[in-house]
Description:
alpha+beta, 5-stranded mixed β-sheet, 10% strand
Amino acid sequence: MRELVYDFFKQNGYVFELVLSVHLFTYWMHRRRYFWLRLAGCAAALLAVSMLWQLLPVDNVVVRSLRTVLFFALVIPCVQLCYRVRTNTAIFYITAACASQHVAYKAARSTVSLVWMSHPGLLQMPGVDLLYAVLFVVYLVLCAAVFGRALRSHRSQAALAGAAVLPLLVGMQLTTNLFQNILDVYSLAMGPGGYTALNLFAIVSCLFLLCLQYEITKTSSSQQDNAILKQLLYQQKQQMEMSRETVELINIKCHDIKNQIATLGSRIPAEEIAELNRAITIYDTTLRTGCEPLDLLLGQKALLCEKKGIRFDCAADGKALDFLKPADIYSLLGNALDNAIEAAGQVADPERRCIHLRAARQGNMVSVCVENLYDGSVTFEDGLPQTSKADKRYHGFGMKSIRMIVEKYQGALDVQARDGAFVLSILLPVPG
Length: 432
């Protein structure tokens, strides 16, 4: 009985290894209804194909190579049957899963070979047949933990691996397996040293492929972020133009209303006149910093702070920012103040809701500082605070936009959050 079980797994173990590896690289995807039933059905179908394949009268390098290609092709519809995923994304992660399976397979085989060479007596111990299975799982989990997590962190970008890239990745993975099938025929004649060397070659090749896939996802993620940032900057530029027209219209209307109040004189009770003047003053108060885009922005944010009960303290020399493009000023400080207003507005104690803005020239540098109080905690990644919103794909670009503009002017950005105070500091060199 033991020999029958051993032979069964020896002939069909590749299916179990492949299913486990693919699952470790795809389990986080959006699952279809009756996922576990679908997964069991796919595993059973793959196992049936493997068992039928064993009935072929020929077993050589060509047959083994065709088997590898066949199972790679079959896994693609299986993944799409279990998950709601694009074909490109499915192929991308299946390629990584197959490379990891090959790494774990070769590493486990090499380890078992070395153990048996150094301790021949282990061959007679009960349960030694399980050594390979245990080692395989350990190596596979390590691969998934290192590369699966790295690839998953850019999962929304994996679909960007287009027709020009995917065939190369798939070709590299399959070529490694196919060459290994050929080399395995000669490895036994080369002795343990040659067998281990060929296995190391296969392991390194697959690890190189996994590293390449990670670099592709990281590059695709950066490209998508930059495209979104450019679109946001364009939208903010358009918003600045519309805001300028709106503020001008409001100022004209406020001026007209003031004249009408003065004309009415005593016909309106003094209390109502005072209330009207107070309301007009809120909309007619414009900070004058010497920089029109900054004045426009500060007027908007001051109204928003008034609405949310936030104390807004501003001491900014707008002329110091003259070397910046108007749209960059609007985006840079607009994003910084938006983040500050959002955080300060959530502070439970109304007395602690405050924002401080400072902008001044210091020699050949311009210093900008936005400080606000906050409740809760702030987590950082790559030097920037991470958004607390649930959907992180379309949030958190404000800070990235700030960093992009600062780098555009060869400046320095520093963000700190401690003791309930969030401080964003920017240092920009003034062009000579």
